[in-house]
Design goal:
By secondary structure, this protein is of the alpha+beta class. Among the domains are: about 40-50 and about 285-355, conserved putative lor/sdh protein from methanococcus maripaludis s2 fold (Beta Barrel), CATH 2.40.420.20; about 50-60 and about 195-280, Efflux pump adaptor protein, beta barrel domain (Elongation Factor Tu (Ef-tu), domain 3); about 100-160, Helix hairpin bin (Helix Hairpins). Helix content is about 20%, strand content about 35%. Strands 2, 4, 7, 9, 10, 11, 12, 13, 17 and 18 form a 10-stranded antiparallel sheet that branches. The chain has a 4-stranded antiparallel sheet with strand order 6-5-3-8, with no helix packed on it. A hairpin with a 2-residue loop joins strand 17 and strand 18 (about 325-330). The longest helix is centred in the first third of the chain and has 29 residues, at about 100-125. The chain is elongated, with a radius of gyration of 43 Å.
Length: about 375
Amino acid sequence: MITPSSMRRPLLATLLAAALLAGCSNGAPPAAPAMGPMPVTVLDMQPQKVASSIEIMAQTEGARETEVRARVGGILLKRLYQEGETVKAGQPLFQIDRAPYEIAHAEARARANQTAREMNRLKGLAEAKAISQKDYDDAVSADAMAQAALRQAELNLSWTTVTAPVSGTTGRAARSEGNLVNTGADSLLTSIYQTNPMWVSFSLGESDLAKLPGGKLNAKKITGVELVLPNGEVYGQTGKLNFVATNIDTTLGTQALRAEFANPEQQLLPGQFVRIRLLTGERDGVFLVPQSAVVQSEQGPLLMLAGAENKVAPRPVKTGEWHGKDWVILGGLQAGDKVIIDNLMKLRPGAPIAPHAPGQQPPAPGAAPGKGDAAPAKKD
C-alpha cells in the first residue's frame, strides 16, 4: 500500500540531488585576476662626453728577471738570505764549500811564486849571456801561466760565495743545504726580480685594434695608460708604453705591447693577472648604460626600452668599450630614450610595464603608471 510518506521520499531525494549539482556548478574557484604591468626601473638617456679607452687582460713581470747561478761546483753549505726578501746587488746569497778551492788556491800561489823566482834568477843570467834567450823566454812564459792559474784559483775561491748580481726581490731557492751544486745547465740556485719599475705585458687582437682610430695602434695617440688591479681598483701610478711590436704574430694574430709602472711600495708582484686600460682620447655624444642592462642576443647586443605606451620595446645598439661599470653605447640610442635596467629576465617585447626612475617607489599594482591612487568618492 502506498502511503503519503513513501511518496515524499523519492521527491526529497530528487530535490537534494539537484541542489548538490547546483552547488558544484556554482562552487568553482574564481578566475585569477589579471596581472598588472611589470614595475621596472628606467634611466633617461642623455648624450655624454667620456674618455675612450680599451681594456686588455695583461700580466705583470719584473723589469729585470735575473737568474742566480753557481759558477763553481761543490756542496751547498748554507743559504744566506730569506726567500722572498729584497736584496741589494753584491749581497751574499749562498755559500758553497770553500775547502777544495782553498787548497787549489794555495797550490796555485806556491807554483806562481816558484815561477816568479825562476824567472828573476834567469833574467840576470840572460843579461850576462850565460844562458840562451830561449831559456829565459820559457821561464817568462811559465811564470805568466802560473800567475794566470793563480788568478783563476782566486776567482774560483771567491765564487764559492754566491752574491746577488742585481738588486731586487728574491724567489724560492732551487737548491737546499747539502745538495751538490754543478756548473752549466744545472747551476740555477734562485732568481731575482727587479720590481720597481714593474713591466706589464699584453697583446692587442684584431677586435681591439679595430676600436682604435684608423684601425691600428699609434703610440703618439695614446693619451694615458692605466692599470686595473684584480679587485677592480685603478692602480695609483700611471704608466707608459715602453715597447710596441712592429709586426703581428702570425700564430695568434695579435700585436705585442708592454707598459711600465712605478712600483715603489711593492704593491705589484710579478706574475699577477691585471687589466691594462689604454686611454685613446674622448668620445662625444655617446651614452652610458649599466653593463647588466645590455642583453646579448643572436642579432647582437640589445637594450630594453620603455616605449611611448609603456610597453617593452627592444632596441639593437652598437656597444663600445667599458667605462667603469657601464657600457659605452656608440649607436642605437637617442636623447630621451628610457632604458630598462632591471627585471630584464621577466620582460617580453610588447609587454606592459610600469616604469619609475631610480630611487623612486614602483607604482602600486593596478595603478596607472606615473599616477597616484584615485581620490575617494564624495558622500552625499
